[in-house]
Each structure stands twice: as C-alpha cells, then as structure tokens.
Design brief:
Elements: H1 3-20, H2 23-30, H3 36-44, H4 63-75, H5 82-94, E1 104-109, E2 114-119, E3 126-132, E4 135-141, E5 146-149, E6 159-164, E7 174-175, H6 180-212, E8 214-215, E9 218-219, H7 224-252, H8 259-282, H9 293-303, H10 310-324, H11 327-332
Parallel strand pairs: 1-3
Antiparallel strand pairs: 2-6, 3-4, 4-7, 5-6, 8-9
Helix pairs in contact: 1-3, 1-4, 4-6, 4-7, 6-7, 6-8, 6-9, 7-8, 8-9, 8-10
Length: 334
C-alpha cells in the first residue's frame, strides 16, 4: 500500500472521529451506553478490518500503520474496542478463520475456566479465546457461553471477568498462529500507541487552556513556569509517539523485542508524568467530569498498567540486555 493510500485512510478515519467521537458520545458510554453510530461509522469504512488481508475482506494495512491508526482513535478517546477488534480480526484471518461482523475482543482462559479483565467484554459480539492452560489456541465464544462479572477500568471502559460454561467443548479450540507471549507483546504495543495518542490530545488541550485562561491580566501561556510545563508535556507526548512508533516498526520488521519492552515502559512513564502536568496546568477544572481532559488522562492511567506495567517491561528489557552480554552497547548504542 502506498503512502498516499495510507494517508487517505488516516484522513478518512479522522473525519469520522471528528463527526462521531463527541463528548456526548464518550460521556454516554461511561454510563453503559453503546456508541453504535461511532462504531458503525468505523466498521462500515472497513477500519476495524485494517489488519485483515484483502483476500479476507480487509484493508491489508501493515502492522505499523494499523497501530498508528489505533493511536489516532485513542487521541479522540473513542469509547469502542477498535484496537481489540483489529487485533482479534487479524488473528482469525491468519488462522484461516472467517472474520465475523461486530465488535471483537480477546482474552486467555486459565485452569479454572476463567477469563479475567476482558477488554470491552460485555460490548463485544464475540470473544476470541487466545490461550488455554498456557497453550496458544483460538476459539470464538458468544457472550451467552460465559457467566459474566462486570467491572471497568479507571476510564470507565469495560474490563469484565467471565467464566466458561462447564458444557463448553474444548475440542472447538484450534491452534493459534502466535504464542500467548507474542500476543501479550502485541497488546503492549497497542496500549503504547494508544497512550501516545491520549498524550497528544492532553498536550493539545493544555495548550488551548493556557492560551485562553487569563490570570493577573495575562494568559497562562505567557507565564514562564507554564511555558516550561507545556514544553515538558509536549516532550512526553513526542517521546511516547516515537517509542510507540519504534515498537510498531520493529514488529513489522519481525524483531519485536526489545522494542516493545522499551516502548511500553517509556510510554507508561510518559503517561504518569504527562497526565500530572496536564492537570497541573488546568488546575481543579481538569478533574471535573465537565472538562474533556479527564477523558484522556483516565485512559492514560488505565492503559499504563494493561498488558504489563512499567516495572514488568523494564525487567523484561533488563533480562534481554543481560542475556546479550554487552550492557554498554545496549545502553549507549555504541
């Protein structure tokens, strides 16, 4: 796919998000509403099938461009399982399974037949099981085959736990094209891209507020301390974007580690520092439900811990460095 074609896809996604990812839609989703119009606009445009091959009815985007698209959706705090559906559809396509219509998600099942903290579980038409007792498997489950316990993350996004019906026939499991470890890495790359998107929006909102809000006869943006904070926040957003892009390109090149470990750890750090700075600039108003900032920052703090937090991925990177033997070269690049 040419750069011009990719740019057209991204522009189309941005127009749809501008039209349908409104604050009313986001707020309604947090009280249990399903943003059907927003979801339909993305699905009908084929964007949820971004990673599926053209032969499988998809767009056939490269993984790096698809993750960039997920970051754009996150920039708008769109309350839909876009990234989860995109990855689940890609897995099904790689396994030679026809991708069904509707929202998808994925989770592993433990020895007690439990699927814990399923992203967007209650909102998905089908749940893709990706792991069973440590084995890489695939099986599509309908919500009625699971007993549900509803929960949410800090951003109000469903993170439900479900137990598989005892009558479920495990013979329905088929081998997965990737291992559970590889899927966790992809999930970390997805959350990294989403964190980068939410940080960009947080930085934009902080700049807008600082240029509009006046104090002592000057806009906040004219105070040196605020200028410095805005610069640091923009830097955190830029670093997260670079780190997420680095991981996405590494996946596309077939060498996902240690790039994913670096990206998720660095994006997690940026999420914590960036959300704190954005709220400092906004003052108390940034914490209120009436202001859009909290839509982004609550996602930042939720996504930071999903598919592994900073400590886990820093440790993973450290182990890879030690295994390689040349610590100085890994740290300095020389």
């Amino acid at each position: 796919m040419t750069p011009d074609e990719i740019a057209l896809i991204r522009d189309a996604a941005q127009r749809l998000l501008n039209d349908h990812a409104t604050r009313e839609t986001i707020a309604a989703a947090e009280t249990g509403g399903w943003p059907g119009e927003l979801w339909s606009s993305l699905a009908d445009a084929g964007l949820t099938m971004a990673l599926v091959s053209e032969g499988g009815g998809g767009v056939g985007l490269d993984i790096a461009d698809a993750l960039d698209l997920a970051g754009l959706v996150a920039e708008y705090a769109a309350p839909v399982p876009f990234g989860e559906t995109m990855l689940a559809a890609w897995l099904l396509d790689r396994a030679g399974i026809a991708v069904p219509d509707g929202a998808l998600t994925f989770a592993g099942i433990d020895a007690d037949r439990k699927l814990a903290r399923i992203p967007w579980g209650r909102s998905a038409q089908l749940v893709l099981v990706t792991e069973h007792n440590g084995q890489a498997v695939l099986a599509l489950l309908e919500p009625g085959e699971l007993n549900w316990e509803h929960a949410t993350n800090m951003a109000g996004e469903p993170r439900d736990t479900a137990t598989l019906d005892p009558a479920f026939d495990t013979a329905r499991f088929v081998p997965s094209p990737i291992s559970p470890t590889e899927l966790r890495q992809l999930g970390a790359a997805l959350r990294s891209a989403q964190i980068a998107g939410a940080l960009r929006r947080s930085s934009d909102l902080a700049v807008l507020y600082a240029t509009q809000r006046s104090q002592f006869g000057k806009t906040l943006s004219q105070f040196q301390a605020i200028q410095q904070s805005l610069a640091v926040l923009a830097t955190q957003a830029a670093v997260a974007t670079a780190a997420a892009g680095y991981a996405a390109r590494a996946i596309a090149a077939g060498s996902p580690m240690p790039a994913i470990a670096i990206a998720k750890a660095r994006c997690g750090e940026a999420a914590g520092a960036g959300s704190a700075i954005a709220h400092q600039i906004h003052g108390a108003i940034g914490f209120t439900l009436e202001h859009d900032l909290q839509f982004s920052t609550r996602r930042l703090l939720s996504w930071r811990d999903e598919f592994g937090g900073d400590a886990e991925w820093n440790e993973a990177f450290g182990r890879l460095v030690l295994a390689g033997g040349d610590v100085w070269k890994a740290v300095s690049g020389r």
